[in-house]
Amino acid sequence: MIDRRAVLGAGLVVMAAPGAEAAAHAYSFDGIEGGVINLGDFRGKLLMVVNTASRCGFTNQYAGLQALWTRYRSRGLTIIGVPSNDFAGQEPGSNEEIRGFCSQRFGVTFPMAAKTTVIGEDAHPFYRWAARERPSDTPRWNFHKYLIGRDGRVTSVFPTSVEPTDARVLTAIERAFTAPGGTS
């Protein structure tokens, strides 16, 4: 089947086979430092996509996300932070301010998207797709975590209240690594 490509805004490319619901690999985010984070580049690996905010009571979860990235990236897990100002205006800064804050305060080295809308009709296409995949598991606040399997499908969803290093998250990651065809 030949992929169709549609350009949806600055640098955003969505690819889907005609008549098929796309997997996460069909989407991309503008990067916080420029360029594009193409989720298709992570095909066959695990992804955790997390909407983030710098002025939230859960902002310290950046440390846990960095710990996950450090622990699992060599095994094929990529964390992608998606700053969003959708919840109580808790991410008002520019991309440059957000990048500096994350780097200086939490030592973040995992990929970060440019500030993005994650809810509502203006939501980024990845978040609209995830809402169709898991309608009862959409972001209700900052630091909502989607674990995406190697096949590009949502395997687990963790709400804001679940820390990135919580045993439930670690178990889901390990299970995804050891699923048939795993990379561990």
Chain-wise SSE layout:
Elements: E1 4-7, E2 13-16, E3 28-30, E4 36-38, E5 46-52, H1 61-72, E6 77-83, H2 95-106, H3 125-133, E7 145-148, E8 154-158, H4 167-178
Parallel strand pairs: 5-6
Antiparallel strand pairs: 1-2, 3-4, 5-7, 7-8
Description:
A hairpin with a 5-residue loop joins strand 3 and strand 4. The N terminus is likely disordered. It contains four helices and eight strands; from the N terminus they run E-E-E-E-E-H-E-H-H-E-E-H. By secondary structure, it is an alpha+beta fold. It is globular. The chain has one domain: Glutaredoxin.
CATH architecture identity: 3-Layer(aba) Sandwich
The helicity comes to 10-25%
Characterize the largest beta sheet: strand count, sense, and whether it forms a barrel: 4 strands, mixed
The sequence of SSEs as H and E is EEEEEHEHHEEH
H/I helix tally: 4
Quick overview of this protein structure:
With 184 residues, this protein is α+β, with helices and mostly antiparallel strands.
Task: Note the main attributes of this structure.
184 residues; alpha+beta; two-stranded antiparallel ribbon; 4 helices; Glutaredoxin; 4-stranded mixed β-sheet
